[in-house]
Structures are given as C-alpha cells and as structure tokens.
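ping. complex inputs:
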Amino acid sequence: MNAPLKSDSKSLLDVLNHRYPKRRPIWFMRQAGRYLPEYRALREKAGSFLDLCYAPELAAEVTLQPLQRFDLDAAILFADILLVPQKMGLELEFVQNEGPKIELVRSREDVVRLDSVGAAGKLEAIYETVKVVRRQLASDVGLIGFCGAPWTVASYLIEGGSSTDRSLARQAAYEAEWFGLLIDKLVEVSTAYLVEQVKAGVEVVQIFDSWAGDLPASLRRQWCDEPVRRIVSGLHDAGCDVPVIGFARGVGAGQVEFAEHTGVAAIGLESSIDAKWAVQAIGANVVLQGNIDPVAVIVGGPRLEAEVNGLLDAVPVERHIVNLGHGMRPETPLGHVADLIDLVRARDAVDFVDV
Ligand code: CP3
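pong. complex structure:
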C-alpha cells in the first residue's frame, strides 16, 4: 500500500487505484433525487424529468446539489439508464408516480430496427452536462458516469417499463431467438456511450445491473456477467482506463463470479450481503462498494448507527467505498443522511489516526 497522497487527492480514485485514501470515500446511489427539496424545486422548473436530463446546465446543477448539502466524495452524473434506448429509436415517457413507459421490443423486427450505431452520438446533451460539472467540481471530488447493463435495460424494453418480476423478459432470456441480438446491440451502444462520457470528463463509471438477481446462475453468466465483461473490455480497448464499478444487484454469492469474470475494479453489494462474507469471498484486488440498507437510513438513530459501525468494522478502509445497497428513497429524512456521513467521518478520525 502506498503512502497517502496530498490532501486534495480524490479518495474515491485512490481506493479504486489501490492507493491508501485520506478518508473513506462516500457517495450514494440516487444521491440527487426526490428526497432533496432543491431537486424537487428544480424538477418543477424544468417541466418533466426528461427535460431535466437533457438540459445540461440544470442537470449539472442537480448533479452538484447533494455535494452542496453533504460532505460526499463523488458526484454521479444526473441522467437515466433509459436515455440510451430512447436514442436507439424508442418512445420514452416518465409518468408521474408511475415511472418509465417505453416502447415495446418483442420481436426480431423490433430489435433490427434499433439504431445501435448512431445512438451514442445523439446523447451530446449528456456529455455537455459532464463538461459543465467538471468545471465546477471541487478538486477532491470524483465524477462518476454510468449506463444500465444490457440485461436490466432489455428488461424495461421487453416489459414496456417497470414490472413486478420481469417475467416476460426472463422468458425471452431463455428462449427468444432475437434476445442475443438485443443484448449485442445494447453492449455496443453502452460501450460507445461510456467512451463518450469518459472523453467528456467522467473519472469512474458504474454499470447498473439492477435486476441481475432475477436470473438463475446459468442465464446470469450469459446475460449479465458476459455482456458486462464485454463493455469493460471494450472501454479498455478504446483507451479508456477508468475504473469500472459493476452493480449486479441481488446476485448474492454470484458476486464472486461476477467480479472474476467481468474484470471490474469494484462491485456494488446489495444490502442483503454480509460484508464480512464479501471481504473473504471476493478477490482481494476488487474494491467493495456498499451496502447500507436504504431503509435503515429512513429509520435512522441507533439502528442506523449499529448498521454503519458493523459495516465499517467488516470492510478494510483501503477496499471500501461507502454507499447504500440500492438507491436513496424519496422519503429519506435529510438529517439521517447527514448522520450517516457523520458516523463514517467519526470513524475516519479513529481509523486514520496513525496513517
Ligand atoms: O443520483 C443518481 O443516482 C444519478 C441519477 C440516476 C437516476 N436514475 C435519476 C432518476 C441514475 C444513476 C439512475 C439509474 C436508473 N434509472 C436505474 C438503475 C438504478 C436503480 O435504481 O436500480 C434504473 C432501473 C432506472 C430507471 C428508472 N428511472 C426508473 C424505474 C424510474 C422510476 C422510479 C423512481 O425511482 O422514480 C426512474 C426515474 C428517476 N431516475 C428519477 C431520478 C431522480 C425520479 C424522477 C422524478 O420523478 O423526478
């Protein structure tokens, strides 16, 4: 382990590059979102959620909002995983209180029509957001870009939006002769999209496979692990040497294979995983991100404190990015988020005393 770097180094990048950080890096999935009153106000002003995603100055402001309020170590680009299929040619709408509605993909014809070559070029507004954020970001804060993993994005296209258990998408993963072509197209476009984000200035990327836990191990290897591996290697082939965080939510013990097979620098752990197990089971060169239960942050108080302390006891500083096991919920009290960060910082003061 190398010596700690100068004080304006980015703890997020230090950990991902196997350097000892100056403190435990913290960021939260959905850290910009409806639990923040300033987000709700700006969203109102922008009109719709999609208008907000495609307005670089406003999206940059939303990206930076949580950093103005909290002592975080990273910003995550404000956008959505469904912008990519939208630019592949599918109608997309976010219905208030219902979530996304997207044009169906349920046949080979539907897949053939999707534009996987030009789509990344149509997302300039997102790259512009990255540039605006980079200009305003403090020197010790990292900027994370992202995309949806092919399986998770495919599940929305096959279901036409959110669904209870993605049953139709799972059936297609078993038997549809066009399913592999859909995944191939999503691999291609996601890689190109991440390359452009990196060129615009993101320093880390996260691939969200939020529904990876839906698939049995055999299908998971084929439709989660392998497509994510192809995106990671495609990025590196394109000369983008940024660390990749893979978030294969819900795969449990499958995290071991996911980490090995994909070659990601870090894995995001869902809250049901025992961090003590992960520290032993996952290859030591892989950084662990997570995994406080978002519901524990709603509860707050001594129960949250116990969860945080248990996690920090389990995961060594140099291997840990503090996060939740899934996104911050809209009903989360702001004070509890501040408490969570304070709890980690209080432990930093102890853990880093002799560094
Ligand atoms: O702060 C951040 O994390 C960055 C921005 C971000 C959003 N979505 C903003 C958003 C990121 C990284 C995402 C990823 C995303 N989008 C995922 C993967 C992560 C996960 O939560 O599992 C998925 C599955 C989506 C698709 C999506 N977007 C759904 C299903 C919904 C509706 C449900 C919900 O949580 O509102 C969205 C809407 C969405 N994406 C909002 C935000 C802030 C809420 C929009 C609003 O009403 O203002």
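The pocket of coproporphyrinogen III is lined by residues 29-34, 43, 49, 76, 78, 80-82, 94, 99-100, 146, 162, 208, 210, 327 (CB under 6 Å).
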